[in-house]
Amino acid sequence: MAPIIKVENISKTYEGGFHALKDVNLDIEEGEILALLGPNGAGKTTLISIICGLVNLSEGRILVGGHDTVSDYRKARELIGLVPQEIALEPFQTVYNGLRFTRGLFGKRPDPEFLENVLRRLSLWDKKDAMTRELSGGMKRRVLIAKALCHSPKILFLDEPTAGVDVELRKDMWEVVSQLKKEGVTIILTTHYIEEAEAIADRVGIINKGEILLVEPTRSLMRRMGHRELRIELTEPLAEIPAALAGYDLEFGADKQTLVYAYEANGERTGITSLITDIKNAGLTLRDIETKQSSLEEIFVGLVKEQA
Ligand SMILES: Nc1ncnc2c1ncn2[C@@H]1O[C@H](COP(=O)(O)OP(=O)(O)OP(=O)(O)O)[C@@H](O)[C@H]1O
């Protein structure tokens, strides 16, 4: 199946000569959740804004649902809902009217039942007559999502949807996102919260200094680049690591009773079996064993450092 979004050789130079994006290529499949990760200033918002037609591209071409975002702007834009990073709402407009108005702007027929549905799923129904200026920051974010959904887009962009929101709202947002995915909506989100990408994204794209470093299924990225640690707790503390175990590069954990062994999860031989045998042969007794997988955060920091 053709990707729902095709980004081909996009470059962006802002006035003043800053190269915010450099030859970016990206295919986004229909129905997936793609998380774009990158440090501040990496170019995530620029990329999203170009796909949504809010910022002009300098070079390249983007197709959304087969429509060129420049020559066929309207058709491309119709398919997209955007939740911007900055809260931009009419302060004296009621929540409900804001949605109605936005839906109208997209040339959609009024549909009170549909709007009620959107408001209910974001727990905003009881706030429908409130003016947006009366709402808390978290509520305003919910309104932004509702507005982005009110013309039934097939693609939803969320630019840092959970920046600065509390844990409960973040969970609610994840819930809404996974529900939308079930309905077949393609979701692209940018985030600084790596655990967010790890928890909900099918694929992760890492972007740094205007370049896409990689785009990979979240799971395989974790598997391919993840390091693991084996933490071995002994029954007695040691004075030092026994010479017989010198070949394993062991380190002490929080105390001298815990040995930490780092290994590559995808390596052919992890060395765990022989380590355990050698520990036993050294006369030591195990109390407990625990493994720890490195997080996407550690992978990300490693990659970005490599590029620096
Ligand atoms: N209108 C503009 N004119 C000039 N430079 C700009 C403009 N907009 C963004 N930039 C620069 O382009 C770079 C990429 O910005 P962008 O907002 O796309 O990054 P980002 O990855 O979304 O960052 P953040 O995580 O901080 O939101 C930054 O260095 C920024 O200063």
TrEMBL record:
PROSITE patterns registered for this protein in UniProt: ABC_TRANSPORTER_1, ABC_TRANSPORTER_2
Cross-referenced Gene3D superfamilies: P-loop containing nucleotide triphosphate hydrolases
Cited Pfam families: ABC_tran
Keyword line: ATP-binding, Nucleotide-binding, Transport
GO molecular function: ATP binding; ATP hydrolysis activity
InterPro entries: AAA+_ATPase (IPR003593), ABC_transporter-like_ATP-bd (IPR003439), ABC_transporter-like_CS (IPR017871), ABC_transporter_ATP-binding (IPR050763), P-loop_NTPase (IPR027417)
Domain ABC transporter, chain residue ranges per copy: 5-234
Family: Belongs to the ABC transporter superfamily.
Entry protein name: ABC transporter ATP-binding protein
